[in-house]
Amino acid sequence: MSQTPRSIGILGGTFDPIHYGHLRPALELLETLDLAEVRFIPCRIPAHRGTPQVTAEQRLALVQTAIAGQPGFVADDRELRREGTSYMVDTLTSLRDEFGQQTLLYLIVGADAFRELSTWRRWQELTTLAHIVVMQRPGAPQALPMTLEEWAAPRVASDAAILRTRPAGCILFQPVTQLDISATQIRALLARGQSPRYLLPDTTLACIHDHGLYRSPLVENSFPS
Ligand code: ATP
User: pTM above the 0.70 mark?
Assistant: First the structure.
Protein backbone atom coordinates (compact mmCIF):
# COMPACT_ATOMS: atom_id res chain seq x y z
CA MET A 1 0.00 0.00 0.00
CA SER A 2 1.49 3.35 -0.99
CA GLN A 3 1.74 6.05 1.65
CA THR A 4 0.50 9.59 0.96
CA PRO A 5 3.55 11.83 0.76
CA ARG A 6 3.94 14.59 3.34
CA SER A 7 2.99 18.16 2.36
CA ILE A 8 4.90 21.10 3.80
CA GLY A 9 4.09 24.79 3.37
CA ILE A 10 6.96 27.27 3.42
CA LEU A 11 6.30 30.90 4.24
CA GLY A 12 9.46 32.95 3.98
CA GLY A 13 9.65 36.64 4.77
CA THR A 14 11.33 39.39 6.69
CA PHE A 15 8.62 39.18 9.38
CA ASP A 16 9.55 42.67 10.54
CA PRO A 17 7.29 42.03 12.45
CA ILE A 18 4.98 39.05 11.81
CA HIS A 19 1.27 40.02 11.72
CA TYR A 20 -2.22 38.64 11.08
CA GLY A 21 -1.80 39.17 7.32
CA HIS A 22 0.75 36.32 7.51
CA LEU A 23 -0.94 34.21 10.15
CA ARG A 24 -4.56 33.98 9.02
CA PRO A 25 -3.79 33.09 5.36
CA ALA A 26 -1.18 30.57 6.57
CA LEU A 27 -3.78 28.84 8.74
CA GLU A 28 -6.27 28.78 5.88
CA LEU A 29 -3.67 27.19 3.59
CA LEU A 30 -2.67 24.66 6.26
CA GLU A 31 -6.29 23.51 6.38
CA THR A 32 -7.45 23.86 2.77
CA LEU A 33 -4.32 22.32 1.24
CA ASP A 34 -4.19 19.68 3.98
CA LEU A 35 -0.58 20.49 4.87
CA ALA A 36 1.25 18.65 7.65
CA GLU A 37 2.86 21.94 8.62
CA VAL A 38 3.60 25.50 7.59
CA ARG A 39 7.19 26.54 8.27
CA PHE A 40 7.73 30.24 8.92
CA ILE A 41 11.25 31.06 7.76
CA PRO A 42 12.52 34.54 8.62
CA CYS A 43 15.34 35.72 6.41
CA ARG A 44 18.68 36.67 7.89
CA ILE A 45 19.55 39.30 5.29
CA PRO A 46 16.71 40.23 2.90
CA ALA A 47 17.61 40.20 -0.78
CA HIS A 48 15.05 42.79 -1.89
CA ARG A 49 14.95 45.48 0.77
CA GLY A 50 17.22 47.28 3.21
CA THR A 51 18.53 45.82 6.47
CA PRO A 52 15.75 45.72 9.07
CA GLN A 53 16.17 47.78 12.28
CA VAL A 54 15.48 44.62 14.27
CA THR A 55 17.91 41.68 14.24
CA ALA A 56 17.08 38.37 12.59
CA GLU A 57 17.12 36.69 16.02
CA GLN A 58 14.57 39.20 17.34
CA ARG A 59 12.33 38.74 14.26
CA LEU A 60 12.53 34.97 14.77
CA ALA A 61 11.58 35.41 18.44
CA LEU A 62 8.54 37.46 17.36
CA VAL A 63 7.53 34.67 14.98
CA GLN A 64 7.86 32.16 17.83
CA THR A 65 5.56 34.20 20.09
CA ALA A 66 2.99 34.56 17.30
CA ILE A 67 2.72 30.88 16.40
CA ALA A 68 3.10 29.37 19.89
CA GLY A 69 0.41 26.78 20.53
CA GLN A 70 -0.83 26.53 16.93
CA PRO A 71 -0.55 22.90 15.81
CA GLY A 72 1.19 22.63 12.44
CA PHE A 73 2.95 26.00 12.64
CA VAL A 74 6.73 25.72 12.89
CA ALA A 75 9.39 28.44 13.24
CA ASP A 76 12.37 27.46 11.11
CA ASP A 77 15.72 29.19 11.70
CA ARG A 78 17.64 27.74 8.73
CA GLU A 79 18.18 31.12 7.05
CA LEU A 80 19.66 32.51 10.28
CA ARG A 81 22.17 29.66 10.27
CA ARG A 82 23.34 30.52 6.74
CA GLU A 83 25.89 33.25 6.04
CA GLY A 84 25.12 36.14 3.73
CA THR A 85 22.00 37.20 1.85
CA SER A 86 19.03 34.84 2.23
CA TYR A 87 17.95 33.41 -1.11
CA MET A 88 14.82 31.25 -1.35
CA VAL A 89 16.42 28.91 -3.89
CA ASP A 90 19.03 27.96 -1.26
CA THR A 91 16.33 27.53 1.38
CA LEU A 92 14.24 25.26 -0.84
CA THR A 93 17.35 23.22 -1.73
CA SER A 94 18.06 22.71 1.95
CA LEU A 95 14.43 21.74 2.65
CA ARG A 96 14.49 19.28 -0.27
CA ASP A 97 17.71 17.73 1.10
CA GLU A 98 16.14 17.43 4.55
CA PHE A 99 12.68 16.14 3.59
CA GLY A 100 13.52 14.08 0.49
CA GLN A 101 12.32 13.95 -3.10
CA GLN A 102 8.81 12.59 -2.42
CA THR A 103 7.68 15.30 0.01
CA LEU A 104 5.36 17.92 -1.49
CA LEU A 105 6.82 21.36 -0.88
CA TYR A 106 4.54 24.41 -1.24
CA LEU A 107 6.30 27.76 -1.35
CA ILE A 108 3.70 30.30 -0.16
CA VAL A 109 4.04 33.88 -1.39
CA GLY A 110 1.79 36.93 -1.40
CA ALA A 111 0.64 38.25 -4.77
CA ASP A 112 2.90 41.31 -4.36
CA ALA A 113 5.96 39.11 -3.81
CA PHE A 114 5.01 36.81 -6.70
CA ARG A 115 4.90 39.77 -9.12
CA GLU A 116 8.58 40.36 -8.29
CA LEU A 117 9.56 36.72 -8.70
CA SER A 118 11.73 37.25 -11.78
CA THR A 119 14.07 39.40 -9.65
CA TRP A 120 14.72 36.50 -7.26
CA ARG A 121 17.98 34.58 -7.56
CA ARG A 122 17.69 31.58 -9.95
CA TRP A 123 13.92 32.11 -9.91
CA GLN A 124 13.19 29.67 -12.70
CA GLU A 125 14.57 26.85 -10.54
CA LEU A 126 12.04 27.47 -7.78
CA THR A 127 9.39 25.24 -9.37
CA THR A 128 11.90 22.42 -9.80
CA LEU A 129 12.10 22.40 -6.00
CA ALA A 130 8.56 23.26 -4.89
CA HIS A 131 5.05 24.21 -5.94
CA ILE A 132 4.24 27.90 -5.58
CA VAL A 133 1.02 28.95 -3.88
CA VAL A 134 0.15 32.60 -4.47
CA MET A 135 -2.10 34.20 -1.84
CA GLN A 136 -4.16 37.18 -2.90
CA ARG A 137 -3.12 40.36 -1.15
CA PRO A 138 -5.08 43.63 -1.00
CA GLY A 139 -3.59 46.21 -3.35
CA ALA A 140 -1.56 43.75 -5.42
CA PRO A 141 -2.38 44.21 -9.14
CA GLN A 142 -3.81 41.16 -10.94
CA ALA A 143 -1.75 41.46 -14.13
CA LEU A 144 1.73 39.95 -14.10
CA PRO A 145 4.83 41.29 -15.84
CA MET A 146 5.15 39.71 -19.32
CA THR A 147 8.23 37.50 -18.64
CA LEU A 148 6.66 36.10 -15.50
CA GLU A 149 3.26 35.62 -17.15
CA GLU A 150 4.82 33.62 -20.00
CA TRP A 151 6.83 31.46 -17.61
CA ALA A 152 3.94 30.94 -15.18
CA ALA A 153 1.11 30.19 -17.65
CA PRO A 154 1.99 26.54 -18.45
CA ARG A 155 2.57 25.83 -14.77
CA VAL A 156 -0.70 27.22 -13.39
CA ALA A 157 -2.95 24.56 -11.85
CA SER A 158 -6.70 25.15 -11.81
CA ASP A 159 -7.20 22.99 -8.74
CA ALA A 160 -5.24 22.15 -5.59
CA ALA A 161 -5.79 18.44 -6.30
CA ILE A 162 -3.37 18.68 -9.24
CA LEU A 163 -0.57 19.75 -6.88
CA ARG A 164 -1.07 16.62 -4.80
CA THR A 165 -0.03 14.43 -7.73
CA ARG A 166 3.61 15.61 -7.75
CA PRO A 167 6.18 17.02 -5.34
CA ALA A 168 6.86 20.31 -7.17
CA GLY A 169 6.30 22.21 -10.42
CA CYS A 170 2.85 23.85 -10.26
CA ILE A 171 1.60 27.34 -9.47
CA LEU A 172 -1.71 27.76 -7.64
CA PHE A 173 -3.53 31.06 -7.14
CA GLN A 174 -5.38 30.54 -3.88
CA PRO A 175 -8.00 32.89 -2.43
CA VAL A 176 -7.45 33.72 1.25
CA THR A 177 -9.11 36.17 3.62
CA GLN A 178 -8.04 39.64 2.53
CA LEU A 179 -6.33 41.47 5.37
CA ASP A 180 -4.86 44.81 4.41
CA ILE A 181 -2.07 44.64 6.99
CA SER A 182 1.63 45.20 6.39
CA ALA A 183 4.71 45.20 8.58
CA THR A 184 5.52 48.65 7.19
CA GLN A 185 2.25 49.98 8.63
CA ILE A 186 2.96 48.37 12.03
CA ARG A 187 6.51 49.82 12.17
CA ALA A 188 5.15 53.26 11.26
CA LEU A 189 2.52 53.14 14.03
CA LEU A 190 5.07 52.05 16.63
CA ALA A 191 7.56 54.72 15.57
CA ARG A 192 4.82 57.35 15.99
CA GLY A 193 3.97 55.99 19.44
CA GLN A 194 0.59 54.69 18.23
CA SER A 195 -0.80 51.24 18.85
CA PRO A 196 -0.80 48.47 16.23
CA ARG A 197 -3.03 46.36 18.50
CA TYR A 198 -5.37 43.95 16.65
CA LEU A 199 -3.07 43.91 13.61
CA LEU A 200 -0.84 41.28 15.22
CA PRO A 201 -1.10 38.93 18.23
CA ASP A 202 -1.02 40.56 21.68
CA THR A 203 1.81 38.23 22.73
CA THR A 204 3.92 39.48 19.82
CA LEU A 205 3.12 43.09 20.64
CA ALA A 206 4.05 42.47 24.29
CA CYS A 207 7.41 41.05 23.14
CA ILE A 208 7.95 44.15 20.96
CA HIS A 209 7.27 46.43 23.94
CA ASP A 210 9.33 44.33 26.37
CA HIS A 211 12.39 44.63 24.12
CA GLY A 212 11.77 48.24 23.09
CA LEU A 213 11.65 47.35 19.39
CA TYR A 214 10.60 49.69 16.55
CA ARG A 215 10.59 52.76 18.81
CA SER A 216 13.11 54.82 16.93
CA PRO A 217 11.91 57.29 14.29
CA LEU A 218 11.16 55.59 11.03
CA VAL A 219 14.43 55.29 9.18
CA GLU A 220 13.99 52.68 6.49
CA ASN A 221 17.38 51.68 5.19
CA SER A 222 17.35 51.78 1.45
CA PHE A 223 18.50 48.81 -0.55
CA PRO A 224 22.07 49.41 -1.70
CA SER A 225 22.14 49.99 -5.43
P1 ATP B 1 6.85 44.96 4.68
O2 ATP B 1 5.63 45.85 4.88
O3 ATP B 1 7.96 45.23 5.64
O4 ATP B 1 7.30 44.93 3.24
P5 ATP B 1 5.19 42.56 4.71
O6 ATP B 1 4.04 42.92 5.57
O7 ATP B 1 4.97 42.53 3.22
O8 ATP B 1 6.44 43.46 5.05
P9 ATP B 1 6.88 40.20 4.65
O10 ATP B 1 7.54 39.58 5.81
O11 ATP B 1 7.74 40.93 3.68
O12 ATP B 1 5.71 41.16 5.20
O13 ATP B 1 5.98 39.13 3.88
C14 ATP B 1 6.28 37.75 3.81
C15 ATP B 1 5.32 37.11 2.83
O16 ATP B 1 3.96 37.26 3.27
C17 ATP B 1 5.37 37.74 1.42
O18 ATP B 1 5.21 36.71 0.47
C19 ATP B 1 4.17 38.68 1.43
O20 ATP B 1 3.67 38.90 0.12
C21 ATP B 1 3.18 37.91 2.28
N22 ATP B 1 2.25 38.81 2.97
C23 ATP B 1 2.56 39.78 3.86
N24 ATP B 1 1.46 40.42 4.28
C25 ATP B 1 0.41 39.85 3.65
C26 ATP B 1 -1.02 40.08 3.66
N27 ATP B 1 -1.55 41.05 4.40
N28 ATP B 1 -1.79 39.28 2.87
C29 ATP B 1 -1.24 38.31 2.10
N30 ATP B 1 0.10 38.04 2.05
C31 ATP B 1 0.91 38.81 2.80
Answer: yes
